[in-house]
Amino acid sequence: MKQRFSSLDVKVIAHELSAALLTLRVSNIYDLSTKIFLVKFAKPNNKQQIIIDSGFRCHLTDFARATATEPSYFVTRLRKFLKTRRVTKVAQVGTDRIIEFQFSEGQYRLFLEFYAGGNIILTSEDLSILALQRIVPEGEGQEQLRVGLKYSLQNRQNYDGVPPLTTERLRTALQKAVERGEGTLVAGKKMKKPAKDALRKALAVSITELPPMLVDHSMRVLQFDSTLKPGDVLENEGLLEHLMRCLQDAQKVIQDITSSDVTNGYIIAKKKEGATDDDTSRKTLIYDDFHPFRPRQFEEDPTSTFLEFQGFNKTVDEFFSSIEGQKLESRLEERELAAKRKIEAARQDQAKRLDGLLEVQELNIRKASALEANAERVQEAMDAVNGLIAQGMDWVEIGKLIELEQKRNNPVAAIIRLPLNLEENTITLLLDEEVAEEEEEDPGYETASDVSDSEDDEREQKTQKEQNQKQAEQRLAIDIDLSLSPYANAREYHIQKKSAKQKEAKTLESSALALKSQEAKIAQHLKKGLKTEKAVLRPVRKQLWFEKFAWFISSDGYLVLGGKDAQQNEIIYKKHLKRGDIYLSADLSGAASVVIKNNPKTPDAPIPPSTLSQAGTLAVATSSAWDSKAGMSAWWVNADQVSKSAPTGEFLPVGSFMVRGKKNFLPPAQLILGFGVIFQISDESKAKHVKHRVQESSSAAPSAAESIGEQENPKAIEDEGSVDGDETDSDVDQDDENLEPRANLLQTQPKVPAGNNEEKVPTQEISDLHIWADKKEPENIADENAKPEPEVDAGEGDQPNSESEDNASTYAPSTTTTNQGKKGPAPRKRGQKAKAKKIAAKYKDQDEEDRLLAQKILGSVAGVQKAEVEAKAKAEREKELAFQRERRRAQHQRTQNEMAEHEAKRKAMLENDIQIDDGEDNVSEIERLIGTALPGDEILEAIPMCAPWSAMGKCKYKVKLQPGTAKKGKAVKEILSKWTEGINPKWVDQESKDNERIWPRELELLKGWKAEEIVNTITVGKVRVMMSGGAAAAAKGSDNKKGGNSKGGKGKKR
Description:
There is one protein chain. Strand 9 (119-124) and strand 10 form a beta hairpin. By secondary structure, the protein is of the alpha+beta class.
């Protein structure tokens, strides 16, 4: 199996990487293991990531892999030098297996070596090593590599250029092979077997730019015999010319491969045992090799299968990811087998415990029966031992006496087992289970006077001893208490038997529960292990264009966008605020600029009040009101009321805009958000769902909006009064008296002609309201001693001569001027003036030459030189500062010119009702986003969404978020664990038909989420999670026939 790149692979990969990564910047670098690294590149609307396996491979990858929790020292060094750097060149070094990445026009150079042990080396522009993956000591044919040394490129293969392929070069290569003795008899050595690839090896050594595999392919294509020896080819000019044509064909193949930006790749695979010929899926194939061309030598092999891929990077990624997948499957199978072995061991352990208790009961019964059957003999033994103890004999002497009596075949001593346990007042007796027959006198018993030294007596003693040992092995060893009678000892064993029986009953009752608990623990441990293993490799989901903003889909089907910072506010205004859209914000610090995207086909259709209210909630939630837990009001205006043009002499910072005309305030927003899941379905499944609001005809929309507006307007006025007091009520009444009745009191207003304001109101009297929409409200808006009232509230109804009804605009100055007098030179101290006069009079006749000569004599020239150096450095610094000021001024002027040009185009577009479809804000993509899938839908992806709680009514998976103290990263991990861990199989609908239960595809997509990747979806700070189980709880409730739609109601506080 192929494991590392060849020189041709390196050339093709470098060619494709150059086309894919140029002008991209390094966003981050991660450790995957000690030798495998992941590098992410990005620029607007283009993200790429490459995986680097030191010494083996480097390619683009479409899979996300689990990264290390902490970066290594080497990765830390790479991040320090390369993060945010732009890729300016990717190329192969000569024809060697080395790829060079250049960053910032060669300021940093990264070399990837794919031979020997491999290495990753970062150098400066002059090839000084800044960091490297492994230190290489100096050795034979190997230069030393460590930080601080120079990285040499001169000794790399064909670094100075590839020599032309000529017949003379080929003849020289073959001649060298003959001189080395390849394929011929060498003197003093045995004749080796004829090498079939001697010619191929000879070419690989001298013609290094052509890989041996490619040369073999060309030989087979042109029908050249590759088994010929180099000497045979040299002797035949025809063979030499034929071989030359083969090499030229190989050279042409390389040129064809590198002529296009993307090269087709081929994987050579072998089928597994039992697989059919028609089945070519990954599960039935074993990947063996990959090449950027179709090798002829494998086409002749019937066991090989070719898989073609568009792009060599994709080919390599598929090849190695398959190997990783196979390793993953083997690890998973090993874990499952280990879990099964643990469960089986737990069952066997429980069975052994029960068998042990049964054996104890049986043994206690046998011991009690033996004591009762041999009560007299037991009493004799007890009396004998107790008598010796009563005589005061030493315990050791008692044991010796019993041992002596056993040798004499004393029947009482024979049933006593040594050693004695007299310290516990117990002895061990060997008793038969059957009743012992009464014997008047044991014929085997001998006294001291009857001992014979004859051989017959010794033989009889041996036989008797063996019989006694066999009988001892068959008898029971019973511990008896010397203070109790034989029957009392038997009673103790009966009590132990009853205790063991009770314990057996309890164990039998708890064994099933204990085994079940043990199996649950093992299953949980296995699940955690499987979760860790599955997170190793998974496809990367391509994000939609609006996911970089704060976004959600309203309950009416409108796309709502919000900026996460000042830069995003600027992008939303420039690229996504079109005619018919609605702009919302709030007079609060940090409030985002929010835009409701209207249907571009019907831009004049009114936006429903519910969507306006939900978008206002987002604007308020992103401000400081979330942390203070205060519900405040947001406001909205039309797109033509927002501009980036400031009055003369004023400059609008990034993320700040001018709003002209009246602001329409919304009721105070409730600070309740939701975090949920939106599913992306296929185009075929889209037809099953009810179309979004933006696709419906606008004929019925005004009437619906009118009815809602008439019902909610009194409540809105009442809510505003609760916040702003009686002044707001009077202003609203005044507006109602002067304005004509409208269909939708929340939205419609008289349209302001484009040029009327400029003619009616002089430039000096314009007071356009200045909206600070960036995340940090500038501190220089109001004076430090001013009251802490929002500046934007001073525009509309608080002034008695308000001109909001006449569509006049108000303005709040963006900066405050402070009159500070210029500081003059400090007054001289007393006596300095007279001293200066004396010095001037003393040296009035001294010229510059005399002054320098005097300073040289006095030794003060060094001070003068130092002063000159300092003055020169100061002049250079001032020159640099002047250059930077000029650069910033030019950049500022260029920005203003671009903004003026943009504003002119935007004004013309709004005046002439021109809709420019630049493809950047394709709202139709939300048609495939749904909250709850229907049976038969093809679910492609699961997308996280954070929205006002009122907009998440159709989401199947959702939780409620309120202002709290928990960090959002911890909250996201808790939510994911609730949705994906501890799922009862009964809650999962394998047929994917019941919306109240979890579907396998939904669970699979949710398990693929990583908390680190989706935490930025939540646009607020610290939160409190309110959930009652999500879809899992709903499924559980469905099992209990209680119904439910998985609404995250009031639950645990986090």
